[in-house]
Amino acid sequence: MKFNSLIPELSVSSIETSKDFYVNKLGFKIEYERKEDKFIFISFENNQIMLQEINNNWSVGTLEYPFGRGINFEMTVSNIDKLYNKVKASNITLFKDLMISNYRKDNKTIVQKEFLIQGPNGYLLRFCD
User: Fold this and answer.
1) For 96-125, what is each residue's pLDDT tens digit?
2) How many CA atoms, within 13 angstroms, populate the side-chain half-sphere of residue 58?
3) pLDDT at 62
4) I need a labelling partner for 3 at 20 to 30 A (CA). Which of 43, 44, 51, 79 fits?
5) How far apart are CA 50 and CA 128, in angstroms?
6) Residues of the chain with pLDDT > 70: what percent?
């Protein structure tokens, strides 16, 4: 496994709830875990995330729901429609339904299909093609 240059590590209130959400409902793969530390390293295609149950080792302030205010994690996936259908079948509430977005980059327009959900701790997850 090759580690990405940037891998967010998210503090979560329950590693078991988060594992169920990311692995069982979304289809992330557990790359490795340290059960004694309540930590898992997960991936979905080329996207990598670390999850650790709150332990105050890295805490810079009080955490309250929703965690990660002011940030969203954009993850590119190979089959946005398949993942969207999996999310719908799992009855995960959509933050933003599947849509086509246009973003300007210099004098070009980037068009991408995307949807957003919130994880169990409120982190905003944006999946796009």
Assistant:
1) 999 999 999 999 999 999 999 999 999 999
2) 9
3) 84
4) 79
5) 20
6) 100
Rg of the chain over CA atoms, in angstroms?
Answer: 15
Domains in the chain, start-ordered, CATH in brackets? Answer: 9-55+65-128 (3.10.180.10)
List, in order, residues 6 or more apart from 11 with CB less than 8 Å away.
52, 53, 54, 58, 59, 63, 67, 121
Concatenate the DSSP letters of all residues of the chain into one string: -PPPS---EEEES-HHHHHIIIIIIT--EEEEEEGGGTEEEEEETTEEEEEEE--SSS-SS---SSTTTT-EEEEE-S-HHHHHHHHHHTTPPEEEEEEEEEEEETTEEEEEEEEEEE-TT--EEEEE-
User: Under 8 Å CB-to-CB from 127, ≥6 apart: which residues?
Assistant: 74, 75, 77, 80, 83, 84, 114, 115, 116, 117
